[in-house]
Amino acid sequence: MSENATRVRDVRPEDAFDVEAVHAWLAPRVPALDGRPSPQVRQFSGGASNLTYLLDYGDLDLVLRRPPHGHKAASAHDMGREVRVQQRLRLHLDVVAEIHGFCEDPSVIGSEFYVMERLRGTILGRKLPEGVELPPEQARVLGATAYDTLADLHSIDVDQAGLADLGRGPGYVRRQVEGWSRRFRDALTDDVPPAGELMAWLAEHQPQEVRASLLHGDWKLDNLVLDLSGTPRITGVLDWEMATVGDPLMDLGASLAYWVTADDDEEFGLVSDQPSILPGMPTREELVERYLARTGLRTGNWTFYEVFGLFRLAVIIQQIWARYRSGHTTNPRFANFGFAAAVLLERAERLAGCR
C-alpha cells in the first residue's frame, strides 16, 4: 500500500479482529512467517468500502482485506471474486498484487478475508504527500499513464485470461442502469433528492454496447500505487472488488466522475479525493480522446457515460451515507457524504438536461 504514513492509523474499535487467529491461519501459508510472532496491525484510512489493514511483521509487511460490518449490497464485498480476478489477471498485467491466502471460513474473524503482498510506492490523495512534488509536465504524464493503463486493461482478452464468466452477457448497460437505480432507491435518505427524472433519463438514453471487456469498476488515482522518482509510472493497482466483464465505456465514464479539474465548480471540487486539479493534469475531454485512440473504440453519445458515471458515484456515496446515518459505521470521513451525493446528482441532472 502507500508509503504515505498518514494513510495508516490505529485500528478503529469497530473494525478490530482477532490478530492471533489470523496469524495462526496465515503462518502455514507463508513460509517467511515460520517462527515469527503475531504482527502489529494498523488500518489504512483510505477506501470507503472493504476494510484494509497493514500486517507488520518487522521486515515483512502484508496487507489484509475484509468486508465492512453492517448492511451490505448482496453482490458487494465478494472476497472470492476479488481474489480470483487478481490471481488470473496477474498473468496478463504486471501491476496486480500477489495473493498469499484467501480464508473462506468466517469463524476465523467473522468474515471472509484475504492477505496479499504490500505494493510499494506512493498513493495520492487530494493533497500531495509531504515531500512529493508533481510539476505540470509530470502531472500530465501521470494522468495520461493512468488512462493508458485502463485502456490496456480493457484490451485484455477476457477468454484468454479465464475471466469471461464474470460477465452475464449482453445487456450490461441495461443491468447497470437498473441495478444502480435500484440501489439508490434502497439507500435513499430523506436529506437527498430522489432523482426520479435522472433515473428515467438514463433508462431512455442507453447506447448500444461497444464490446465486452474486463472492467476494474473503481479506477481512480488513489487506487493506483505509483513510482514518482522519475517519469511517473504505475507499480500497482488496488481494489478489484467491483471488477466484472462489460462495456468498457461504462468503466471509463465511472472513472472520470472522480476526475475534477481546476475549472469545475467549487462544490463538485469538494467531492474528489484525488489531485486531478493540479496544473498540467489532462482534462476529461483529453483523456476520453486519448483512451478512444488507444483502444480504437468509438462513442456517439459521451454525455450518457458521463451522466451515468456521476449517478453511479452518487449511489456509492449514498449507500455509505445511509450506513453512517444508521450507525453501522462511525468513520468521520463519511460525515459529509449526504452533501456529496446531492452535489453529484445535481451535476448529473444538469448534464442530462433534467434541470
From TrEMBL:
Molecular function in Gene Ontology: kinase activity
InterPro entries listed in its UniProt record: ACAD10-like (IPR052898), ACAD10_11_N (IPR041726), Aminoglycoside_PTrfase (IPR002575), Kinase-like_dom_sf (IPR011009)
Gene3D superfamilies noted in UniProt: 3.90.1200.10, Phosphorylase Kinase, domain 1
Transferase as UniProt keyword: yes
Keywords: Kinase, Transferase
Family annotation (Pfam families): APH
Keyword tRNA processing in annotation: no
Domain Aminoglycoside phosphotransferase residues, every copy: 41-269
Lineage top rank: taxon: Bacteria
PANTHER family with a match to the protein in the record: HAD FAMILY PHOSPHATASE (PTHR47829:SF1), HYDROLASE, PUTATIVE (AFU_ORTHOLOGUE AFUA_1G12880)-RELATED (PTHR47829)
The protein's name in its UniProt record: Aminoglycoside phosphotransferase (APT) family kinase protein
